[in-house]
Each structure stands twice: as structure tokens, then as C-alpha cells.
Design goal:
The chain is an all-alpha fold. It has one domain. It contains five helices and no strands. Helix 3 runs antiparallel to helix 4. The protein binds protoporphyrin IX containing FE. The site of protoporphyrin IX containing FE (HEM) has 17 residues, from helix 2, helix 3, helix 4 and helix 5.
């Protein structure tokens, strides 16, 4: 890997892992924060005010970007450290979890975008289900990482 030789494989691995962990932090934080606010509004049977709806959209986009960065840094780490995907069975469980997280985030963003374009309120039940599926994916990815890299 050409850039590994330029700045040293170790430095590259450290930088990529830092980016990987920061994006887990961002994606996880947004997932939890968004879910807490959503559940308070659902329990009160209220629709979030327009400015809060906008905040949800921005959080959704930041969440999606951080998951894409997680995938890019993860793929680069696989290439740098292992050179192939035949790492451990749990690593494939991790990738499946990470795919669920990516799909849930992309679908959630798509729904928020379509609702604001049609000037309709997002479907709170659908958004709640998407968030739960995303959380299951995150737990699977973390469990897979814990087993594969221990
Ligand atoms: C939701 C998605 C993801 C989460 C929560 C996650 C979590 C983690 C965690 C916690 C570690 C540290 C493991 C340790 O050192 O014990 C890690 C390392 C790593 N992850 Fe991810 N990750 C995700 C997505 C990905 C993806 C999509 C890939 C590859 C396509 C990937 C590849 C890697 C690699 C290669 C390492 C370094 C392992 C090593 O040090 O040997 N990750 N990840």
C-alpha cells in the first residue's frame, strides 16, 4: 500500500483507527440522541416543531456521513492490516451489522428528505422502527468487533 510506506504503516493504522473510533462515537451519539428526543415526542403524542424537524434532518445527514466514513476507514484498515476479508467469522457478522446500520441510516434520511419535500410530517412509527433496526445492527457490529479482534 503506497501511502503506508510514505508515512509509515503504523502511523497510517493509528490515523485510520482514530477516524474509525471517532465516527463510531458520532454515529452512536446521534443514534441515541435522536432516539431519546423522538421517544419523548411520541410519548407526548406530539409532532416535533419545524425547527426541531430541521435539526433531525441535519443530525440524520451527519449520522449518514459518519457511517460512510466508518466504512471507508474500515475498508482501508482491512486492506492495510489483513490484505483480505478472511479475518474471522465474527468479522463477517460485524460487516453484516455495519451494513444494516448503513441501510437504516440511508433509508431514514431518504424518508426525512421525502417528507420535508412533500411538506408532510415524517412517519414517527416508521422512524422509530428504522432507529431500532439501526441499533440492532450497531450491537451486532460491536459484538462482532469484540469477538473478531480479541
Ligand atoms: C457500525 C459499524 C462498525 C463498528 C461499530 C465498528 C467497531 C469497531 C471497533 C470497536 C473496533 C476496535 C476493535 C478492537 O481493537 O478490539 C474496530 C476495528 C476495526 N474495524 Fe470496525 N466497526 C464498524 C465498521 C467496520 C467496517 C464496515 C469495516 C470494514 C469494512 C471495519 C473494519 C475494522 C478493522 C479492520 C478494524 C481493526 C482491527 C484490528 O485492529 O485488527 N469496521 N471497529
Amino acid at each position: 500500500m503506497i501511502y503506508g510506506h510514505i508515512i509509515g504503516q503504523n502511523i497510517m493504522e493509528i490515523i485510520l483507527k482514530l477516524i474509525h473510533y471517532l465516527s463510531i462515537f458520532a454515529a452512536g451519539g446521534i443514534g441515541v440522541g435522536g432516539a431519546v428526543i423522538q421517544s419523548i415526542y411520541t410519548k407526548a403524542n406530539k409532532i416535533p416543531e419545524p425547527h426541531l424537524g430541521k435539526a433531525f434532518k441535519v443530525l440524520g445527514i451527519i449520522g449518514l456521513i459518519s457511517i460512510i466514513i466508518l466504512w471507508i476507514s474500515g475498508l482501508t484498515l482491512v486492506n492495510l492490516i489483513y490484505g483480505s476479508f478472511s479475518i474471522h467469522w465474527a468479522f463477517h457478522m460485524k460487516l453484516f451489522g455495519a451494513l444494516i446500520v448503513l441501510a437504516a441510516s440511508a433509508f431514514g434520511n431518504f424518508h426525512l428528505h421525502a417528507s420535508s419535500k412533500n411538506q408532510t410530517a415524517p412517519n414517527t412509527i416508521l422512524m422509530k422502527r428504522i432507529a431500532s433496526i439501526g441499533r440492532i445492527g450497531l450491537v451486532a457490529a460491536l459484538l462482532g468487533a469484540a469477538i473478531a479482534f480479541s
